[in-house]
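Aim 2 progress update. The chain analyzed this quarter is reproduced below.
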Amino acid sequence: MPEEENQVVEETIADIKDPRIIKQIKAAEEAIDKSKPDYAIDVCMGILIKHPSCAEIRKILHKAQIRKTGKENPVKKVLASVNGLVFSIKASSLIKKGQALKAIEAAEALRNAYANNKPASKAAAKAAESLEYWATSVLYWQSIVHYNPADIASMISLGNALIKNKNADEAIKVGERIQRVSPGNGEAQALMRSASVVRTMEKSWKEGDSGDFRQKLANADAATDREKENRIVNDEESMLKAVEKLSEEIKNDVENINLYKDIIQNYKGLKDYENAIKYVKAARQLSMGKGDTSLEKLEADLINLEMEYRLNALSEKLAANPDDAALKAEFEKLSKEQFVFKLNTAEAMVERYPNDFNFRYYLGQLYLDDGRLDAAIGQFQASQKSPKVRSQSLLGLGKAFMLGKKFDMAADQLKTAKAEMKIVNEAKKEIIYTLGTIYEAMGKKNEALEEFKEIYSIDIQYKDVAKKINDHYAAASAS
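Predicted structure tokens:
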């Protein structure tokens, strides 16, 4: 039998009656403000041993972790991701054994070393959900989205956790944010519908409706799940029919490259990467396919997706057999193979198509992630010539110069990118935020504040700009 954990309703700080602990919490918050995150982390970790369900304390811990991590470090980020992936396998096993709290504690230990550990945060969110600690789950998804603002899947998970935690208004805001990045996103629309239903039911419940609110909420969740499942089934049936039809059409029209492209996309949708790769290879042998660089890139993308698919399958096997040394070795080997494949493919594409600036930008990103700053700078300097990737390339240059502590040069690149972008979208917000961060590193507090104010005025939820602005005015009022 799995070891059972005592599930309790999530606590708040107000529920903690021990004055010594209250004093420790205040000391932890003060330590963060005084740039002593390690002390705050130690205090919070100690309190959470006795009060693991208190999301408010965990929120303080996460602030300290973010402060300690500081600026992005590509090398540390890659190492954290690898450690996190290995841990996530162990975490799945702990959750199945009824030891979700142990999984959360272990995840926090990894986050203490580097807060931007997406696999560890995701595993902790799943562990919290297994305990129905929805406020705690929200914190982990918020952390992931903080560092990965374009991660739509994590935003969807954040929205769903907010609904479970009865934060329907916040869930709707998340859905609206997704819609701005991905207009017409079906999951975002379903999320917003569920949140609207919950908000209406909660209002009715508070106003004295005698119905069972929890049951209504469960019914709403079940309806949303059925809608999602039906959509997936219908999509799969459509793709299978399309594949069958297209394969017959290709037999009768062998040189029609558009048929190949269509069948490839359907196989990709079905996650049948083996057949997708087979058809893309065949398409590249056609007279119209030999010079088509998009097909070459598509083949590389499909091979990478196939590797990712196998990695996920291995991860599931390891979750069921965490002590299997052979599976662990296979997982680590394939992970390394995938990175080397990405790098080798990108380098080969750049060598073959030196004037294709999209390939140069992609290679620059890989070099940046690998901590090879000079190599990344060289690729971004070339790719900025293309209007399609100019702003992203300037951002990449800014980050590379920043990591190399060439702050004035980094600021120049980002000021140029900011001036050239007329629409304030997620990409421009990242540019403005990074420019503000660079000014902070240069000790130019006023210039940094102006950049953060610009984001605050249009998106108060973006990363930690609200805290930066509020801290500034609080300090000004106190002086």
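The chain has a mean pLDDT of 85. The first helix runs from residue 19 to 33. These observations will guide the mutagenesis experiments scheduled for the next reporting period.
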